[in-house]
Amino acid sequence: MVVETNERPATQTPQFSMELNDEQRQIQKWIHGFAKDVVRPAAHEWDEREETPWPIIQEAAKIGLYSFEFLQNAFADPTGLTMPIANEELFWGDAGIGLSIFGSTLCVAGIVANGTPEQIVEWVPQCFGTPDKVQMGAFGVSEPDAGSDVSSLKSRAVYDEAKDEWVLNGTKTWITNGGIADVHVLVLSVDPELNSRGHAAFVVPPGTPGLSQGQKFKKHGIRASHTAEVVLDNVRVPGRCLLGGKEKLDARLARAREGKSSKVQAAMATFEATRPAVGAQAVGIARAAYEFALDYAKERKQFGRAIIENQAIAFKLADMKTRLDASRLLVWRAAWMGKNGKPFENGEGSMSKLFAGESAVWVTEQAIQIMGGYGYVRENPVERWHRDSKIYTIFEGTSEIQRLVISRAISGIHIK
Predict the structure, then answer these.
(1) What does the DSSP assignment read for 210-247?
(2) Cα–Cα dist 366/383, whole Å
């Protein structure tokens, strides 16, 4: 496997464009077909069951969508747009099932953002397994007393020098695939006095004793995606499971203790890499609701004419489409910038996630309003899309945290 860097000579940087190339259009069509034919027909069932849709994941693995190879090829796209395109199409089908299929990608992002080339080669393929033996990955930062405030992690990793092992203890919460994953990447504190600068990311290999699933959460939306606590009770992992290696960690901690500038922390490095993709998921949900509401408004007749002929309805749809397209533009810009090493000087990554997430909530709510009582019942997909959309103002950084990141970036002031 060739591990690419985001740093490219200026002459090789592809121009940002909204025009997709042939390969991107083929991928878009391929995933849309899977979302339409396989995901959507199963969405209501798995939402009601609130269980991981293993048969759908296996179907995705058989066609190569759920695989290390697909992810590798998507990340190799020099424009950075393949992953947002893939996420939008799959989540247009269903967000809960989409997270079950692409949930392992967050674990992969944690490994790629923090690990050495050797660690990437070893652990990333194990996050997917094979079509005959599907595996999963999970990434965990949040704790019962540390959500948005990642500096308050209480979980600890202590180094046992005699055995070259790390001993992990604590509880992680709100973890996608938590406890059922084969590979867990968890961010813990190695030096509590340094707060977030004293964190490190660790791989917990499959079958490691002491790791167990705690409470499984019954959620408002994305019900087909497994979310649970992960409990660590004297979990021992080899020294090689520290992402980035101990030499790099020791050097970073030494700089922090001296008050010197440090690079991005383990959790933040992962979130910066995934925010545009998460924004694209929200775009997919919003697009599904907009298209459904548009078709309904054209067909539904009241007072002798289609309801779209009324400005009250037509203007809602106009605003829905505008916010949808603006969200996609912000997401694609951030994805392109991230891939090509362009600094997020104004918080562009956070902008994309913030606007796309809040727009998805608004667009799905307008879709319900357009459909009236029909849109409020569980059998109607817009009701599910509205429930699913709300998580995009909460996970991987709440809307308030995104605004904090953006305001700090544009002002240069450490706003609290």
Answers:
(1) TEEEEEEPP-SS-TTS-EEEEEEEEEEEEGGGBTT-HH
(2) 11
CATH number at residue 94: 1.10.540.10
CATH number at residue 355: 1.20.140.10
CB–CB of 206/182 below 8 Å? yes
CB 128 within 8 A of CB 68: yes
Residues designated catalytic: 396
Query: How far does the chain reach from its first CA to its final CA, in angstroms?
Result: 42
Return the pLDDT at 147. 66
pLDDT digits (tens, 9 = 90+) for 350-378: 999 999 999 999 999 999 999 999 999 99
DSSP 3-state assignment of 39? Answer: helix
CA 158 from chain centre, in angstroms, equals 29
Same domain, yes or no, for 204 and 225?
yes
Confidence of residue 163 (pLDDT cuts 50, 70, 90): very high
Q: 266-299 and 348-371 helices cross at what angle (nearest 10)?
A: 30
